[in-house]
Amino acid sequence: MKKELDYTQVALEASHKVIAGLTEIGLSMSKKIEKMKVKKQQAKANHVECHQKFQARIQQSEDSMQAQHLIIEALVEEKDSLLQTIQGLKKRTMRLLHSMMNGKMNRKNIRRKKKLRIYL
Predict the structure, then answer these.
(1) What domain of life does the UniProt record list for this protein's source (predicted)?
(2) Which DSSP string do the residues of 71-114 spell out, in sequence order?
(3) Of 98, 110, 113, 119, which has the fewest CB atoms closer than 10 Å, so is most exposed?
């Protein structure tokens, strides 16, 4: 019986050591899990922040493109207006030149007629 009690005592001490070792391992794993959770939360927060910055850059680029598009439209309208002005000026210049040419021709004809009257 004493032997049996000794075996039980040894087994109990061994069990106690195993339980203590497993408890220590469990605590160590719990700490590692907590650290991993913190790292996961940090990674998620970093990802969200990065995503928000990226979205902000995309929005800024879209806004810039929109502004450039409006500027281009305004420039095209200005160009069309200037082309119309140039065409109008060309027409006026052509009419003026034509009338000037007609005036010169009329003056030449009048001079010729005067010369002809002198001779007749």
Answers:
(1) Eukaryota
(2) HHHHHHHHHHHHHHHHHHHHHHHHHHHHHHHHHHHHHHHHHHHH
(3) 119
